[in-house]
């Protein structure tokens, strides 16, 4: 129960709320993505093994297993985001008296920034996959809990948009403009495809024929 | 760090993912709302007490304190949602052999359903308030972390829409159609106002003049 884990869930929220830079938005977005995966797993788990939905079994089981793996990887990314942020802060704290030191610090900061951009980019890819899988969960899942798949889709879309804020924010600080452009182009592509997948999952779950349904 | 609380955050996600009805979507939506509040608090906490942003102090301090209270209340609602669901399940399990028992069971189920609708309705009101407050956080917060206020707004919008799915789903099962209509009307009103507030907070944080900015 949510009320029970005052040492866990509540403690994590306390840490987010605190005036310390980590865990920050990057970690929170990954956690929201993990929650979207968990909601999809719940719908699948309340469908699997029931005679009534036996036909869905073959598709839903691998979908559920993949969501579990994505949830774990998203929680790892939440932790990795905090490490990446700290590495960047450490680089920024390097001495900058001599010209050599200044150059070294700038190089270390750019390297840390690249790593700190790769983390939310990985989160975005995972959340996109969660949204893709939620479509089949929404189509095949137990109708009694299908609105939880719709919630999962809403939450996945927020996680995707949120994590891409960090990709774009970090990319804007990269001196390597070609690399920055690659990140931004990937972010735009993932945002479009991911939001489309999430919205399709939502509409499927809500039983509304979505605009892509007739293709 | 997110990686540390494998007994807390990860355990909560495990429980959501499991094939048990609680914690379900209602609890998860409340937790997502609590995370939106926490993100707003973080931005406020990284602004308060800094000479550079002294002007924001008088508005941001009560905003931050209110977000903390809303976060706590949302976590309580997450737990209350699980209790309300269990109460409904208990009512559904009452004996239904005699006509008297059938009536008693039906009355108990409708009473439990009303309580189970009040919880997500309360969550929706709290999340709406979070979205309202995020607007000032987005306007007054430390620009270096303002994108976290934008993330908070995205997350709040998903939480609001998600919790209202439960309000509408439960209302649809209420035999008292007048009461059901009241819930649905309130849900529609809250959804419109809350999404507008969240989107305004998002655009403010992103530095985009939103369409309501010139009113």
Largest interchain contact: A-B, 63 and 63 residues
Low-confidence stretches of chain A: 1-6, 209-215
Radius of gyration of chain A: 20 Å
Biggest β-sheet strands, sense, barrel of chain A: none
Order of helices and strands of chain A: HHHHHH
Question: How widely separated are the two ends of chain A?
Answer: 42 Å
Structural class, from secondary structure content of chain A? Answer: mainly alpha
State the helicity of chain A in percent bands.
over 70%
How many E strands of chain A? Answer: 0
Strand percent estimate of chain A: under 5%
What do these coordinates show?
The structure is a homodimer. With about 220 residues, the first copy, chain A, is an all-alpha fold. In chain A, about 75% of the residues lie in helices and about 0% in strands. Chain A contains six helices and no strands. In chain A, helix 2 (about 25-45) runs antiparallel to helix 5 (about 145-170) and helix 4 packs antiparallel against helix 5. The first copy, chain A, is elongated and about 75 Å long. The N and C termini of chain A lie far apart (about 40 Å). The interface between A and B is large, with 63 and 63 residues.
